[in-house]
Amino acid sequence: MRGKYLKARLQEAGLAFPKTHDLLDLLKRLLAFEPAWTTLTPQLTQLVNYAVVFRYPGISASKADAQKALAACRAVRRAVRPSLGLKD
């Protein structure tokens, strides 16, 4: 998850945002429009490292870490898609 859902919601709200992989910064910008999304903080905190650290060769996640990241991505997806008018 590279923040595409968060960026899409920012776009729909008419909010400008910088080029960033910082999922927590994107969430902070959205909370005025989507206050219930504060519950996504634990998942997005977990995913921040995956958005930056694991993008480059030489560093990889364990299978267990990858499974946790996938579960976090799915939880965020389920939570945000309805706000974008998308089915889960």
Decide which structural class fits the backbone: mainly alpha
* Percent strand: under 5%
What is the overall number of helices?
A: 4
| Chain-averaged pLDDT | 89
User: Unreliable segments (pLDDT under 50, ≥5 consecutive)?
Assistant: none
Reading the helices and strands in chain order gives HHHH
Biggest sheet statistics:
none
Radius of gyration from CA coordinates: 13 Å
Please give the number of β-strands.
Answer: 0
Helix fraction?
40-55%
**Shape descriptor:** globular
Q: Could you tell me how far the N terminus lies from the C terminus, measured between alpha carbons in angstroms?
A: 16 Å
Structure summarized in a few sentences:
The protein is 53% helix and 0% strand.
Q: What would you note in describing this structure?
A:
The protein is mainly alpha-helical and 88 residues long. The protein has helices at 4-12, 23-30, 41-52, 63-80. The longest helix has 18 residues, at 63-80.
